[in-house]
Write a structure and sequence with these properties.
mainly beta; 2,3-Dihydroxybiphenyl 1,2-Dioxygenase, domain 1; 2 domains; nine-stranded mixed β-sheet; 6 helices; globular
């Protein structure tokens, strides 16, 4: 008998390992306008046993969102075991969570206005995307060097700069395989921008090579708002996730999708042969007007990239 897939409602938050949780709070709050406190976890002990097995681990974390409906940012500072950078330098197309995209009204004007507040990595560029049209972008970083794309296009109405954190970008080794996985298993059933190569030759400053070839697409969910971009690069190929990387090391850690039934999702994924990094774990929720028991689990996508599935109470 075919098992019904629980409802998944798109990207809810992005998790980032940081060196200084207060410096990151100031950046995301004051520069990217993540002013809505969603959670402040405080010093937390041994909350991720499936990741660390028998090892003690201690971290602090917070979650803030924007006033608009947007992807929430979670920053994690781990104290034990001592963290280290996932990569010494983050490059466009690295395998794993690779970037977030923030909408702006005009990419070139935004770069000029925020030159003293954001470390930008390139000049603004414009691509013509088949079936979409003009897409202008510029890349900068957060305090830990994580890539942030600031993008503008006629389809987006942006009342103020910066606008919403609109999408999460993941570097993959096989675009078609990853599209099938996220569409089939995680509910990204809308192709917002079909696979294209329009960014090829435009990302040399952030990929490490002016001849970088890019295939990418943008997926959405009919059950949610936030978008997922899948990116496959070649010349050079995206670097794999280091074998010894741990949750809470410095860098992008995960994308998280909301799920209406985490226990049912665990059964569905295991029946489908999808590896779980952690089994469903209950958590008490007393934040952002929510009270009760929530659940989370972590699964692996085809490249071994962690994907969190989160069920909130109510």
């Amino acid at each position: 008998m075919r098992m019904e897939k629980p409802v998944v409602t798109g990207i809810q938050h992005v998790g980032i390992g940081v060196r200084d949780i207060e410096a990151s709070r100031a950046f995301y709050r004051d520069v990217l306008r993540c002013t809505q406190r969603m959670a402040d976890f405080g010093l937390t002990h041994n909350a991720m046993p499936d990741f660390f097995r028998a090892s003690a681990h201690v971290f602090n974390a917070w979650m803030y969102g924007q006033e608009q409906d947007a992807i929430v940012v979670e920053c994690v500072q781990r104290f034990e075991p001592l963290p280290r950078p996932i990569r010494k330098q983050n490059l466009y197309g690295d395998i794993g969570v690779n970037k977030i995209t923030v909408e702006v009204s005009d990419a070139a004007a935004f770069r000029a206005a925020y030159a003293e507040r954001i470390r930008f990595l390139c000049e603004p560029k414009t691509a013509q995307i088949p079936g979409w049209g003009k897409y202008s972008f510029v890349y900068g970083t957060d305090p830990d060097g994580n890539l942030i794309e600031f993008a503008s296009c006629p389809q987006w109405e942006v009342p103020g700069n910066p606008g919403r954190i609109r999408s999460l970008g993941i570097g993959v080794t096989d675009l078609d395989r990853s599209m099938e996985f996220y569409t089939r298993h995680l509910g990204f059933d809308q192709v917002v921008i079909a696979p294209h190569e329009s960014f090829s030759g435009l990302v040399g400053e952030i990929s490490g090579s002016p001849s970088t070839q890019v295939r990418s697409c943008l997926l959405g969910s009919s059950n949610g708002f936030h978008l997922l971009e899948l990116i496959e690069v070649s010349k050079p190929r995206g670097r794999s996730i280091p074998f010894n990387a741990l949750w809470g090391d410095y860098g992008y850690l995960e994308g998280c999708c909301l799920c209406l039934d985490v226990l049912g999702m665990a059964r569905y994924l295991m029946k489908g042969g999808i590896d779980l990094l952690s089994y469903p774990t209950a958590v008490d929720v007393h934040e952002a007007g929510l009270e009760g028991t929530g659940w989370f689990l972590y699964a692996k996508d085809p490249d071994g990239i962690p994907v969190e599935l989160l069920e909130l109470p109510g």
